[in-house]
Amino acid sequence: xxxxxxxxxxxxxxxxxxxxxxxxxxxxxxxxxxxxxxxxxxxxxxxxxxxxxxxxxxxxxxxxxxxxxxxxxxxxxxxxxxxxxxxxxxxxxxxxxxxxxxxxxxxxxxxxxxxxxxxxxxxxxxxxxxxxxxxxxxxxxxxxxxxxxxxxxxxxxxxxxxxxxxxxxxxxxxxxxxxxxxxxxxxxxxxxxxxxxxxxxxxxxxxxxxxxxxxxxxxxxxxxxxxxxxxxxxxxxxxxxxxxxxxxxxxxxxxxxxxxxxxxxxxxxxxxxxxxxxxxxxxxxxxxxxxxxxxxxxxxxxxxxxxxxxxxxxxxxxxxxxxxxxxxxxxxxxxxxxxxxxxxxxxxxxxxxxxxxxxxxxxxxxxxxxxxxxxxxxxxxxxxxxxxxxxxxxxxxxxxxxxxx
Amino acid sequence: xxxxxxxxxxxxxxxxxxxxxxxxxxxxxxxxxxxxxxxxxxxxxxxxxxxxxxxxxxxxxxxxxxxxxxxxxxxxxxxxxxxxxxxxxxxxxxxxxxxxxxxxxxxxxxxxxxxxxxxxxxxxxxxxxxxxxxxxxxxxxxxxxxxxxxxxxxxxxxxxxxxxxxxxxxxxxxxxxxxxxxxxxxxxxxxxxxxxxxxxxxxxxxxxxxxxxxxxxxxxxxxxxxxxxxxxxxxxxxxxxxxxxxxxxxxxxxxxxxxxxxxxxxxxxxxxxxxxxxxxxxxxxxxxxxxxxxxxxxxxxxxxxxxxxxxxxxxxxxxxxxxxxxxxxxxxxxxxxxxxxxxxxxxxxxxxxxxxxxxxxxxxxxxxxxxxxxxxxxxxxxxxxxxxxxxxxxxxxxxxxxxxx
Lengths: 405, 405
Hints:
The structure is a homodimer. By secondary structure, the first copy, chain A, is of the alpha/beta class. Chain A has 12 helices and 13 strands. Chain A has a 7-stranded mixed β-sheet with strand order 3-2-1-4-5-10-11, with helices on both faces. The first copy, chain A, has a 4-stranded parallel β-sheet with strand order 7-8-6-9, sandwiched between helices. In chain A, helix 1 runs antiparallel to helix 3 and helix 1 packs across helix 11.
């Protein structure tokens, strides 16, 4: 007897989270055990609000699956909603189970990062305790690459490719004038420096930028930074610095907060880490300096997504459906690397309890002693993840993406 | 009797200026009238410093021409150097002519924007006055699209395509949460709003972003802006604003300067127009707000260059060589549009005196009455310029560009 399935997306966007959604939809549509594929709009809030949409007709044609794979952000919308502990308050769970029952949902797939895996952990524990026949499966995503039990996270490779290409292009932009110039590139990552480390992939036979890489895994020393910039400017006209938004000083204070000036109403003026480093260089080095914040484009630029990332994200979605068909619940779909050259991964599962609410940081031995660069194992790890180019179609000169009204 | 030619690049980078260089080199290499093609490093300063490099061997293979076409920024480096009035001081001119004579240069091609055309105007006038047999030709470039005597400038189309695609991708990124959100996108353009107007190309059947477009051609009214954002938020959760860096208030003061706070040393803190509008929304509307400065990526992102722009830029370079062979001097290579549909241009020439030091702004009738959007003729004008995609090759997951050591 076939039942219905439900899929939703949560947390921050990536260029690959819709590819995981496409993988879930595609695999579910192929399965005899699934009748209707429902999507909940705006994550678990869409379930709580009974805001479900049937997806079978929209994705009946293979070409729509392809378009979805290459569309940035979240086709089903997102939310940031943390379920309560059901041992204290079951109201959210009662409501969710009412909806699951109403739509005869046998399989629930939740695509997201750390916080979303917390939802999977809680909901799967609850349904198991209650003896409800609903398989709850987590599908990973996050540009931050900070999940445990998976070699790397879907969405990270595309962001890494955007960062590497953009840093190279900005290096070309910087090298043209024969005057001392410092470029600061601020990259996402509050606690883990994976994305900033990916800037090292911009290096080529002719360009050694970035010349300094600052990660949240190490304390940032302002004096040492100024000294290094001055030394580098003696060797070369151009110094390019990649910095994580989340770097802190040795007392654990965010560097970004230190540039915060107060406006006439007493509000702290918004100021990013890159701007703070720009001010430091302007004041203490005195050369031409510019800062660039890659901002949301690093997670949304599907036009330069990594093909490897998009395909793996699709497979992780499809693998999640297979896990559910095997009667698994409370697990996350994962991939593990079995070889660097040739690059090869296998798909599997991990107990959700081992993943939710933990953050994977860069291993200490992959960062140089000075805390200003990454070491060789990092490139071996990263390089395969940015291989291959996006298959985005362009119509009217701009990318052709999907949108759910 | 064949002579040698010299080419140089000047001003700010674009994704297409190397394509014009490729056009000059390719056409000159084919010409019996040219023996050696020299490039001067760092523009006219490279001529003054006798820093020339022979390019024939590097570009003997067609594939190198193709790589150069798709490489961002300036292969030969750049400078910002204004020649003096030769009626007052001939020292720069004497030095330049000494170098031109030393290398037997019969043709000098200078690729650049407004300021570079000033160099072409002065140098061609000088050589003409002196009766020197050197043809001096200007090849246009500027992302700003603010040159006269040309339908649109090389480099503009690629920047416009990057802006349109990025605004669409950021719109997808913004739409996912069901809460009121304002996104401010700051786009280059101190005096002319062409690049900001190109954000209108991001609109699709499902996305009407940007919802407000602010151009330097009209005074910016803060109160009216706040009112409009509030009104738009009543209709929809998400308001996306495209703004030129160079907008001013009705007294002619830059809006960007108004956010300038002073640090402990008395220096004005760097603050962009987008950040100022972000602060205004945070204070006066109070909803979630983010600002993104597209920064140098809008001029350097060759990976999403417009094929139309790259091909036209190449043809403008080649056309410049043809003009020199026809014994023209003191002219700029131009293109004029003869039809929108099908889009068609023809190449020609314009007297350099009509171009240097003028800025072409958006026609008043292409801006709506409120000064918050562009009107229909703008899309007809812009849309052909972003057609076709870059042919950049990727190696090791990143774009493969050329670099002169």
